[in-house]
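Entry 12.
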Amino acid sequence: MAVLPYSIREGLKGLARARFAAFASTSAMAVSLLLVGTVLVIGFEAAQVAQWLRERVGEAEIFLEVDTDDMTGQSLERRLALHPAVVSTRYVSKAEAVEIFRREFGEGAEAFFDRPFLPPSIRVQFRQAWANPDSLSALKDRLERIPRVDEVQYNQALLVAVQRNLRLITFFGAGIGFVVLLASIFLVANTIRLTIYARRLLIRTMKLVGATDAFIRRPFLVEGAAQGFVAGLIAAGLLWGAVESIVAWVPELHLGDAFLPVAMGTVVGAGVALGWLGSLLSVRRFIRNVAVA
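Predicted 3D structure (tokens):
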């Protein structure tokens, strides 16, 4: 425990001793974290858009037989609402269907009202987990076997297209995120390696007087974590400002107050972890290669 205060003290002093190297590594980490944070924000917005699309394509309309009365239709709606795949239901009576038809077709719609032809229907919103072609196709077959149900309609072509595009976007986004993260680790590790190389004589002297590798390594880990913390704060501040500006310009985006603090905390935490990991990888390799003779 007595070594810990020394490690923290020496690690923080290292920032003041090599200001340019500390500035370079902190700047590199800030840029890397800004890229990682940007990918995180874009991924969140893409997930929100994907959820919205799933909600839209997960809608179906169940048309009942024309002579079905409202009591029977509403009873069937209540039964459907209890299904685990259903989020919400809405019963559309024959009178309401006529009003919808009149609004959509405008003048001349009355020419079709010489005999009843618009059936009652039930509009169903399915859960996201069921909003895929296979699940909805199976549900459609089962629903059409229910008495008084005439036909079930949903936009199958759009659903297939959305599923295919969402898979491509997810794969592409994960690939970009992985490349950015990998590039960030290499960039930070190489920058910190230059910082440690500038103190090779100090490391050699400490090894000559009998200091263990762990004792030499601790201050560098503290210094790397401190640099990562500062870089994380810088990146989080820049990202916060950028997001707030974009949301003010495009209010339709879903980046709200509930997500931003989590994203900022993730960026700062990633900065500390990145600085510590980069220092660990660099100093461990460098200490092994320092000659003591």
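Annotation: Residues 156-197 form the longest helix (42 residues). The chain has two domains: 3-53+162-289, 59-153.
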